[in-house]
């Protein structure tokens, strides 16, 4: 299956930054812990952050039955989902060429609801594992009621593109000799501390999948 | 000026996580380096990441005259802008109560174009300073042509809300004695390395505003 590089998903501005291969799109989606989903509500575009997970060629998101955004997904509603990873601050010699290094993905499609309990459970498992690999086997599994009060939606990754900016600033040749330091401040989303729930005994075994800090 | 807490901007789901005061909304917008903007294009919602900056009670974003998203902002178009800061991975005893700690802001409004050159320049200055405080006085300022080929839009922060989840997992009382480690892995977007442009002499003075790493 090839992605359908429609005009609306194609990267037009800085087209050299556009990528359409699955490996690139999937790796960005898998590294990002949350996405932004846009839908139309009462004629205006709304956008909300939410957790997502990719399984094969589908991206899934979920929420409580009562959540507002799901009221907009009753019928054949369009949605666009975007994930963005910030990789660096690009300090050019010119103010004009300042930029960010980033990897982003945009997916357009019509979300479908996942109602099959086995399918739904496998998505919820993948979501927990996306937040913390190894965790599904070290927590209480969802009950039937919990599964019922959660709605899960999927969007096929048939209309998706990635856009990546990397590397040093791109200054005009005439600016290269200017006396301003130029380069990139690389950025990373890092685990900085593990804080145990104060309601729990500190004697409990710290699981091996927790970050070292 | 009080924010207009309309129904569409109010936090309905987990309403206790909603915040409407300027200090909270502004501090989240100022810490975030980029936002996601949703507009309607050809009847479908599209969402794109872009740099933003807040000045007083306005949020601004910019882009090249040729950029696609600006074609959708010709008239009285609605837009929604969202910024999200990921603060932690919430590991509950139950799969169901796994979550993320985050601070997010949603702004709804009708973007207006900033065409006055002085106003536009002050926004571009604020954007550079948002990426790296201290940088505007240590780079080449934009030329008239560069300012002309950049479009700047603003949205008033009159319809904005913040949503914040913080603190430990919220497990059911009946789950509290389960033998699974519970807590939060705190996350932070950090500068990890400064990489000088290889086209520049390493003898150039490293500016004091660069992160230590």
Automatic annotation (TrEMBL), chains A, B:
**Highest taxon in the source lineage:** Bacteria
| Chain segments annotated as coiled-coil in the UniProt record | none
- What's the protein called, per UniProt? Flavin-nucleotide-binding protein
Query: Taxonomic lineage of this organism?
Result: Bacteria, Bacillati, Bacillota, Clostridia, Eubacteriales
């Amino acid at each position: 299956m090839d992605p359908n590089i429609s005009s609306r998903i194609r990267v037009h501005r800085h087209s050299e930054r556009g990528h359409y291969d699955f490996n690139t799109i999937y790796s960005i989606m898998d590294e990002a812990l949350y996405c932004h989903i846009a839908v139309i509500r009462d004629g205006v575009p709304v956008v909300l952050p939410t957790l997502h997970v990719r399984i094969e060629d589908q991206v899934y998101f979920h929420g409580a039955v009562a959540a507002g955004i799901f009221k907009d997904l009753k019928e054949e509603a369009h949605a666009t989902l975007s994930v963005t990873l910030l990789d660096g601050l690009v300090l050019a010699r010119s103010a004009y060429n300042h930029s960010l290094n980033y990897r982003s993905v945009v997916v357009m499609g019509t979300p479908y609801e996942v109602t099959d309990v086995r399918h739904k459970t496998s998505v919820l498992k993948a979501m927990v594992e996306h937040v913390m690999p190894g965790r599904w086997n070290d927590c209480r599994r969802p009950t039937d009621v919990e599964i019922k009060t959660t709605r899960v939606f999927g969007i096929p990754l048939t209309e998706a593109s990635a856009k990546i900016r990397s590397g040093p600033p791109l200054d005009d040749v005439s600016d290269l000799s200017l006396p301003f330091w130029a380069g990139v401040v690389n950025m990373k989303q890092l685990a900085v501390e593990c804080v145990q729930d104060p309601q729990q005994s500190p004697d409990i075994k710290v699981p091996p999948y927790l970050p070292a800090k």
